[in-house]
């Protein structure tokens, strides 16, 4: 819904009702007397019939106006509800990126341990290494899902670029022993772009990030 229209809702609403009232009166007068601006009735019965019929018209116009308000209110509520839902997906998307960043640090830690020692001497370390590899893989898939749920074209392009780069450095996603690895610098780069785009489309702000995201 247009932001200017929402900000000036009362003015537009009153203007719409006035136009509805005016056009309804002119049409009613034309059907009643043949002219939009008839002369004042001279007999009591004519005035009585006119007034009772006109009140019925006003009741009908009021019903139309009320229905229009209900439709407008529902549209506004639905849009606001969708916006709030997209905010939840946006926060979740940023959390996913930060979790990928954390998992990368653990992968690097365990990978360096293996390189120093030449082999896996500890089955626990091997399991931990593979666990974080698996977490990164799952979170990268969740990036695509959350971008699609938010439904912003520019945001989706940022996510697609990230996914492309993530798969080009696919060692830490599909091959556990390669030297090629997705770095936290790459994740930070796309994270900052996501934040800028989400702020641009009014889904997050600094206060929302401080409340829900811990860096």
Q: Which helices and strands occur, and which strands form pairs?
A:
Elements: H1 3-7, H2 9-33, H3 44-117, H4 123-150, H5 153-168, H6 171-174, H7 184-200, H8 206-212
Helix pairs in contact: 2-3, 3-4, 3-7, 4-5, 5-7
N-end to C-end Cα span: 34 Å
Summing up helix and strand content along with how strands pair, one would put the structural category as mainly alpha
Describe the main β-sheet briefly: none
Number of helices: 8
Parts with pLDDT < 50 across at least 5 consecutive residues: 171-179
Shape: rod-shaped
User: Mind telling me the C-alpha Rg?
Assistant: 32 Å
The ordered H/E elements are HHHHHHHH
Instruction: Estimate percent helicity.
Output: over 70%
Q: Please, what is the average pLDDT?
A: 77
Strand content: under 5%
Task: Write down how many β-strands occur, each being a DSSP E stretch of 2 or more residues.
Answer: 0
Give a structural overview:
The protein is an all-alpha fold and 215 residues long. Helix content is 82%, strand content 0%. The longest helix has 74 residues, at 44-117. Residues 171-179 have low confidence and may be disordered.
Keywords:
82% helix, mainly alpha, 215 residues, single chain
